[in-house]
Design a protein that fits this description.
The chain is an alpha/beta fold. It contains 13 helices and 15 strands. The protein is globular and about 70 Å long. 48% of the residues are buried.
Length: 375
Amino acid sequence: METKVLTGAEAVAWGVKLVKPNVIPVYPITPQTHIIEKVAEFVESGELKAEYIRVESEMTALGAVAGAIIEGSRAFTATASQGLLFMHEVLHWVAGGRLPAVMVICTRGVGAPWTLWCDYQDVLSQRDTGWMQLFATSAQEALDFLIISYKVAEMVNIPVMLALDGFLISHTAEPVCLVSDSMVREFLPDFAFPLSLDERDPFTLWPIPQADKYYTIRRELFNDMISALRVWKEQMDLWNTLASRKYSLLEADIPCGAKEAFLCAGATAGTVKHAIKYMFDNKLGLITLRLFRPFPEEDLKKIASNLETIYVLDKALSYGRFGILAQEVEAVVKDLCQVKNLIVSLGGLDFTPQELVELYERARTTKERVIWRES
């Protein structure tokens, strides 16, 4: 397999070329614009046969994705920050309509005040819209997870947000092992949406149901989201075999005898790995959360059962409660071990191994459960 030096945005674009969406509605927003620019190059050169539609807003982009899927076409779009917030209403329609959309989010803080830099408030604030959510920790994962996301979404008919850290991954170049078109064709079947509209056999999508039917529809989406955990595991294992990867939904690297571990998602994992190796003498563990929705609850319980403390590193807030990751983790492990919440970065605040050491030392000596960096 060929290796290229690609940014995370370019890796996503290569993934788009491999999954071959028929319709690509786009609207630019920092820091995801590099994705749709590279995709545009592939379309212009003829390497990707697709309808590339320049729409007037992010809401329209997702609406066009929905229309394309309903018509029977695979589709792709990407956004970030305020653009994702602008899509909020349509996010519910896509999930409630069981449309297998895949959308990449280059994570960025939201206003006010304005920021262009990375945190997870945009993507995690949409966790209850009915979309599955997956975090990449590298450009390589961005490429591979895009392909896996299409497979899972189209198997369970639930949409996927693939999140990669704005700038930290989207604009950082690293070696990426590409996969062949034939390998992707073996893994990902041609698109076939079961409810595609056909003028020869017309029917109505999404009429106004009675309350009992509405209740049933929502319960089915809830249960199918939980059942999708098994599908994610199966398809990730299959991709591991085909592409010689070693991915898991929840990666745990816990040294023998360690009773404490950090938990994080996305690019933060790289910083933590460095700190554990060079500043903690490999005496603490690291839990890297890749799949956030559906949440891998049982996997986390197994890990937590052997720990005394999990330090959850957050880049998004549930105001009045905790960081969003910590809120989810505590709900799962509260009877197994204690959770300390470290708010490591918001609005792109630089986070280094030295800051992690300082936060860890303060967390061990305070009764506070949410530990903020000292300004």
